[in-house]
Write a structure and sequence with these properties.
The strands form 3 sheets. Strands 10, 11, 12, 13, 14, 15, 16, 17 and 18 form a 9-stranded mixed β-sheet that branches. It is elongated and about 115 Å long. The N and C termini lie far apart (76 Å). The chain is of the alpha/beta class and 882 residues long. α4 packs antiparallel against α5. A hairpin with a 2-residue loop joins β13 and β14. The protein has 32 helices and 24 strands.
Length: 882
């Protein structure tokens, strides 16, 4: 690789890298990839198996179990001490396997969001993973692209880059092809683009001079491993809940142990019971199952083309109240097609152009149409090699190239006779783009852009008899024609040209207007139903687009977003409209001609009213609004790298229905977590209540400490895992969004948990009374109470359905994982009394038919009682809705 490439002419750098303007060959790129390796600095730190294993032993629960085992060994209870160690090992193994699998799943998801780069290889423009870049590759860049390697510029048009991540300089740096001084510091190397920076304006091309660790960024970060982004709000809520439970149960356990010792219970039994109670009250499977639920939910989203970049988005998705959505590619198919051409001689249907060809048109129309398409093809950054090719670049520009091919105007052929001399990239301020081409003894300026901008910059227009001057009246006629095309749902571009003797003249002055081009981007067929789903879910959908009001209104009607006539507020009037009438945010569903700064203002305005905002964006200037939104949604197909990095979620298909699917999955994930947390706590609370009441009442312990540990090992793991895998309620999108400040368990959930725990406790004591009535001995009585509470906890999973769900067909009964978990747990609970080693260890007796009758009757009682109460509440809710 050349030394100090910033100080060498671009041609000399390319010579030293042995590459031409057509780029590397495929075979040459493969050879260099083997030589230099992947273009990668550091991957996000992967969770090592050893670290995940050690994590299983870093919790108060494990410390308490370890203390119990130590006490058992100290008192000579080798069997109990060994059993606790085995329980520790099994619990750690389950946690290790589950957490490692979930971690690997999330790492695989992150790989889906890898960056890509546009390169020239074998003379063609190709899109490749950024990791496959090699020294000598010619990379094409536009505003919003992240720079994926160190590049020596060979082309630049009004190019500037944000290098703050590398140099700390907050102001974008202007770039040019001319060499910089040999001694120039990093921030002054204007001829270079560096890995890890972003293009903020303009366009250009550069030859890769360094990849991976050889880049400037690689030298800085070579010894640094990227840390994980910290815990999400959901993870913090779970951690806070666990910490609260630890302290509460330690106090309760200590009190119970003190009372037991005061009434002269066996000291070892009381101390061990207190520790077991503390363990019983803390759902040790909580963080493991939460990780699994998040990983599983994120994979579901990814399969539906929604890639979650930040875990915090999962929690916020279900609380979304407003979606600010772009139009192009989100509500529409992003399959732009040229439909109409308007020149001074009249309108031309492009289908006619395709079938008849331009030569079949009238003589005047022939020349005007040919000139219009010639300008559209020349003033273009996209690449299309044949009519069958998908092309690469902006969909609108690909559509222009495709229309040119229909008229036998191939860009590569045109460029042979009109060599590109200079390019002025599209500027949101001017709303125009220009390319300058050699043409005979002068230079042809080809311009396209928004009709109002191009018409305002034009002084003449091509007519039937040559060029004619433009005055206010003729300008108004052209603008009226553009408006009419917009009313038909077309996106309108204007094209203009001029001839100059020098290539460095002002590109947008003294233009000659050539004509208008109307492009159609049809509405997606699946959007209307998705918008209806949002309305039923209590979510408002608002279109925020840079297009004309008439075009926006046409698409809004097509997707069912607004009635006709729909009120539209244009970007320039947004601030005043909100200030004079804040209710405009509730009334208006269409904001048109909106620039990125106004998008940011809209996001803040909705948030100020208490809304949770999801906003879509694709450009570099959308990044502030995407970051400001509660859920920033970047476009994966047409979005810039900067927009993707600012967003919390990436749409891999750019489709609006995908946002709705992701919101549903966000609600399902949160609902599953709430469901299994409630299940775990109600089960563990029943264990605490059973032992606590027995100790306080000076009754024999209905459950022994080792039995509690075994019960938790079975019921805290498999049913909770199954609940985390649930598909969610069918009508989950027919419920209003939840308050994002709402805790995982609110007052209502805690009340239900206490009542359900009380029912499970009552069933256990009822079984104990029945055992005494049957004159069962101590071992048989403990067996009955143990099995009653165990099976009551299993049946308790059916109480986790929603109040409005059908009692037989609901999200719980449809969960195939749950049925498998129940079958496994029932076997693990019913088998030990009949296996002598297990029966001896757990102090259980083989139950006879009478004992099983008591177990089944008492264990099913809480389920029947709870279902009866839920059915009553469900009927009341339905009556209130009517």
């Amino acid at each position: 690789m050349p030394e100090a490439p910033h100080a060498l002419p671009a041609a000399q750098v390319m010579d030293r890298l042995q590459v031409t303007a057509d780029g590397l060959s495929t075979d040459g790129a493969k050879a260099r990839h083997q030589q230099f390796g992947p273009n990668r600095i550091t991957a996000r730190r992967a969770a090592s198996a050893l670290r995940v294993l050690l994590h299983q032993f870093r919790s108060p629960v494990v410390y308490l179990l370890g203390a119990a085992a130590a006490l058992a060994f100290y008192f000579g209870e080798l069997e109990e001490g060994g059993a606790i160690v085995v329980v520790l090992a099994i619990n750690a193994l389950i946690g290790f396997v589950t957490e490692l699998k979930a971690a690997r799943s999330i790492e695989s998801l992150r790989a889906l969001g890898g960056h890509t780069a546009r390169v020239r290889r074998d003379g063609h423009v190709r899109l490749i993973p950024a990791e496959e870049l090699v020294p000598g590759d010619i990379v094409l860049l536009e505003a919003g692209d992240a720079v994926s390697a160190d590049l020596r510029l060979v082309e630049a048009s009004r190019l500037s880059a944000d290098e703050s991540t590398l140099t700390g300089e907050s102001v974008p740096v202007e770039k040019e092809v001319a060499p910089a001084a040999h001694a120039a510091r990093l921030g002054d190397r204007s001829s270079m683009l560096f890995k890890g920076t972003a293009v903020t304006r303009g366009s250009g091309a550069g030859v890769v001079v360094a990849t991976g660790l050889a880049t400037e960024l690689g030298r800085v970060t070579q010894l640094v491993i990227e840390a994980d982004a910290g815990s999400s709000p959901l993870e913090r809520k779970l951690a806070r809940l666990s910490a609260q439970l630890v302290w509460a149960t330690l106090i309760v356990a200590a009190a119970i142990a003190a009372v037991g010792l005061a009434v002269h219970e066996d000291a070892f039994l009381m101390v061990e019971a207190a520790i077991a109670l503390a363990v019983a009250a803390i759902p040790e499977g909580l963080p493991i199952v939460a990780t699994l639920a998040l990983a599983r939910g994120m994979w579901r989203m990814a399969r539906q083309n929604a890639l979650i970049e930040r875990l915090s988005a999962v929690e916020t998705l279900g609380a979304t109240t407003v979606i600010l959505t772009d139009k192009t590619g989100t509500l529409t198919e992003n399959r732009m097609t040229v439909r109409r051409l308007h020149v001074a001689s009249g309108d031309i249907e492009v289908e006619a152009l395709a079938h008849k060809g331009p030569r079949s048109l009238g003589a005047a129309g022939d020349g005007q149409v040919n000139t219009l398409l010639r300008i559209a093809v020349l003033c273009n950054d996209a690449h299309l090699y044949s009519a069958e090719d998908e092309g690469s670049g902006d969909p609108m520009e690909i559509a222009l190239l495709r229309a040119g091919l229909q008229a036998r105007l191939r860009r590569a052929t045109l460029l042979h006779g009109h060599r590109l001399a200079r390019k002025h990239a599209f500027d949101p301020g001017t709303k125009m783009m220009a390319t300058v081409h050699e043409s005979g003894d002068g230079f042809l300026f080809a311009v396209k852009g928004a009709p109002e901008a191009v018409i305002a910059a034009a002084t003449r227009a091509i007519g039937d008899h040559g060029e004619t001057a433009l005055n206010d009246e003729t300008r108004a006629e052209w603008l009226a024609r553009a408006t009419l095309l917009g009313h038909r749902g077309l996106r309108v571009l204007a094209c203009a040209m001029k001839m100059e003797t020098q290539p460095d003249g002002a590109p947008y002055q003294g233009l000659v207007l050539v004509g208008l081009i109307g492009l159609e981007d049809p509405a997606r067929a699946d959007v209307p139903s998705a918008i209806q789903d949002c309305r039923r879910a209590g979510i408002r959908v608002v279109m925020v687009t840079g297009d004309h009001a008439v075009t926006a209104r046409s698409i809004a009607r097509a997707v069912g977003l607004a009635d006709h006539p729909a009120e539209v507020v244009e970007g320039a009037a947004i601030a005043k409209a909100i200030e004079t009438d804040p209710s405009v945010l509730r009334r208006i569903s269409i904001f048109a001609r909106v620039i990125p700064a106004e998008k940011l203002a809209l996001v803040k305005a909705y948030q100020a009213q208490g809304d949770i905002v999801a906003m879509t964006g694709d450009g570099v200037n959308d990044a502030p609004a995407l970051r400001q939104a509660d859920i920033g949604v970047a476009m994966g197909l047409r979005g810039t790298d900067v927009a993707r990095e600012a967003a919390a979620m990436i749409l891999l298909d750019d489709a609006f229905p995908t946002i709705v699917k992701a919101i549903r999955q966000g609600r399902v994930i949160f609902g599953n977590i709430r469901r299994f947390v409630a299940y775990l706590l109600s089960c563990n609370l029943s264990e605490v209540m059973v032992v606590g009441i027995a100790v306080l009442s000076a009754l024999p312990l209905p459950l022994l400490p080792l039995q509690i540990l075994y019960l938790n090992l079975v019921t805290d793991v498999f049913p909770a895992f199954a609940l985390a895998m649930g598909e969610g309620e069918a009508a989950i999108l027919q419920q209003p969004p939840r308050d994002p400040k709402e805790p995982i368990l609110g007052r209502a959930q805690w009340l239900v948990i206490v009542l359900q725990g009380a029912l499970l406790t009552a069933a256990t004591f009822a079984a104990l009374l029945a055992a005494r009535w049957l004159d069962l001995d101590a071992s048989q009585s403990v067996t009955v109470t143990f099995l009653t509470l165990a099976f009551a906890q299993l049946w308790h999973v059916f109480n986790m359905r929603g109040i409005r769900a059908n009692i037989l067909a609901n999200e719980v009964t449809r969960n195939v994982w749950l049925w498998g978990a129940l079958a496994l747990c029932a076997t693990l609970l019913a088998a030990p009394p009949y296996l002598p080693p297990a029966a001896h260890l757990l102090q259980l007796a083989p139950p006879d038919a009478a004992m099983w009758a008591v177990v089944l009757a008492c264990s099913l009682a809480p389920l029947v009682a709870t279902q009866a109460v839920m059915a009553g509440l469900g009927l009341r809710h339905a009556a209130l809705r009517r």
